[in-house]
Amino acid sequence: MTEHPAARTMPARTAYHHGDLRAQMIAAVRDLVETHGPDGFSVAEAARRAGVSSAAPYKHFRDRAEILRGVVGEAMDRLRAAMEAGAATYPAGSVEAVAAVGLAYVSFARAEPGVFRLTFGLTEGHGNDADLRAKGEDDFGVVVRCAAACLGLPPDDPHVQACAYMLWSFVHGHSFLTIDNKRSVASTRIDDWTYLMTVSRAILGQANRG
Amino acid sequence: MTEHPAARTMPARTAYHHGDLRAQMIAAVRDLVETHGPDGFSVAEAARRAGVSSAAPYKHFRDRAEILRGVVGEAMDRLRAAMEAGAATYPAGSVEAVAAVGLAYVSFARAEPGVFRLTFGLTEGHGNDADLRAKGEDDFGVVVRCAAACLGLPPDDPHVQACAYMLWSFVHGHSFLTIDNKRSVASTRIDDWTYLMTVSRAILGQANRG
DNA sequence: CCCTAGAAGTAAGAGTTGCTAACTTTACCC
DNA sequence: GGGTAAAGTTAGCAACTCTTACTTCTAGGG
Fold first, then answer.
1. Cβ contacts of A176 on chain B, cutoff 8 Å
2. What is the pLDDT of residues A88-113, one digit of tens each?
3. What is the nearest nucleotide to A14, using C1' and CA?
4. Which nucleotide is nearest to B53 (CA to C1')?
5. Structure confidence by residue, pLDDT tens digits, A43-80
6. What are phi and psi of A84, to 5 degrees?
7. How far from chain centre, in Å, is Cα A100?
8. Rg of chain A's alpha carbons, rounded to an integer?
9. What class is the B72-208 domain?
10. Where are the domains of chain B?
């Protein structure tokens, strides 16, 4: 799916065995993370699934952590795409568009809890990675733009930034509690959409109507 | 600190070498998790730090996961204590008390990001653990009671539950984004206390003044 | 068309880890 | 004191990460 830097230096698709082990490794790891949890994967097992020796991946990744970074980067791309798609289903500037972005976020977490947890949980090694940081800002940018459109303010307005951050932490927390099953602790069964609409309205309205 | 079940079956403090390897293991793992990240610990290294052979821990824990569960359980106890202490610094029923609970939560995450991440991130193996589940409900109970007092409603009121859940997901998300350094993505530098007060007021006020 | 550089793979191995099995040491209780 | 059981030890297996040295395939220039 995503085009990787390696595609530049490589004739793409015409190599020793696969020609595209990097992408296949990422896919395999994504699968493993999803089925066995974020730490329940091994590069050995992923290599096995890709049909190569356990040393082969090290021609494409420096170490285990870099493989994870690859998975996370790809996930962040997909998350952003999902958020943008969500926003696009409602008129720009509407509260619904904001809520839809949140729904896309939560849906992603629910659909791929392992990858989601990995993406936001394993920031030990790759927290300083410039590439991932940029992707993170891109993701946040979607929220910011929606909030800005809704509030009728420029995206760099401090109020917009504050609102976007609030929305993000809300949705992020909700996502985590959902996949951690902590949600059932509260005796209420809240519908995602109405929940997100309520929250979005509360946060955005607060600045608007004041 | 915390009294463990093992203390019952054991003469406590008068054994082979330590008499309390279980607690020392938990402490060692907590340290390792804090310094090397949630997956950057090994039971071998923890045992080494405790001054015992790498097989010794298995007399007290079934496996690696159970050690983690021990650390998480202890952390949840401390988190609850911190939240209760926070609430107690303001008059019962005040919005400040609610915000203080949130501040305790965020402070805990900031002080022990590794343990915090472990507590809420590693729900793969021990998500079904009854003990941890109970502790999680206890933690949530603090929020519920504060919200109930603030709203002047019984704790089992659906509205209280919904508000408490909202508050929790908000604070939870904020905590995670904070320790993930995602916070600096937003160009605003928000003070924790005013942030939490704003949020608490918004969520609780919404039902109150309507 | 060959031949060479280098990318992409393999096999073998060092070192660490999780966990088990079998044994030993210690403390308590009668 | 002797028996019992908890709490520790050593030894060892299988698996994993990552390295080194070797092989194989492909692309591209002369």
1. 120, 169, 172-173, 176
2. 999 999 999 999 999 999 999 999 99
3. D26
4. D9
5. 999 999 999 999 999 999 999 999 999 999 999 999 99
6. -65, -40
7. 15
8. 19
9. mainly alpha
10. 6-59, 72-208
